[in-house]
Amino acid sequence: MEDLTTNQKGAIAEAAFTAAAIRLGYFVLRPTPEGRRYDLVLDTGPQLLRVQCKWARRKGDVVVVQARTCRHTPVNGYIRTTYTATEIDALGIYCPDNEQCYLVPITDFEGQGFMHLRLAPTLNNQRVGCRMASRYLLLGAVAQLEERRHGMAEARGSSPLSSIKAEGRPASPGGPRS
User: Fold this and answer.
1) Among 120, 131, 160, 167, which is disulfide-ready with 146 (CB 3.0 to 4.6 Å)?
2) Counting beta carbons within 10 angstroms of the beta carbon of residue 9, is it exposed (0 to 12), middle (13 to 18) or buried (19 or more)?
3) At 4, is the pLDDT very low, low, confident or very high (cuts 50, 70, 90)?
């Protein structure tokens, strides 16, 4: 997969994240026309979340995510930017090395160009500043993103999901989705 272009990797990440979200019972919307900072909108029932999809690679026990954009302009050369909460609500990450999708809220990486999600604890047992990948797995991350936390930016919408059903499908106000 090393011979893929960045555009191809981005398209694969977007397709894999979309498929995973649909399997979990969510609806996925696409902006028309394209050109927004987000790739898709995840409809959780009570909320719409703007998601920018990213391809990530595994390096040992870490999923490495490039959480910035880079484009070339004729006048200014390469321009690198990061994402803000006014542009997106979360990153949707696909790691082909472990075939997992993750959802990371903007509040956990705003202004950062790179992010590391740990698949296993550090060898020296450091916990401060470590982001465990399991916390961001798509299955449970939507519910976490919608939780109301004191002192933290809240996800958009009215009420959080009530629960995640045992078989991995999210509960919705009108009952299970088919």
Assistant:
1) 160
2) middle
3) very high
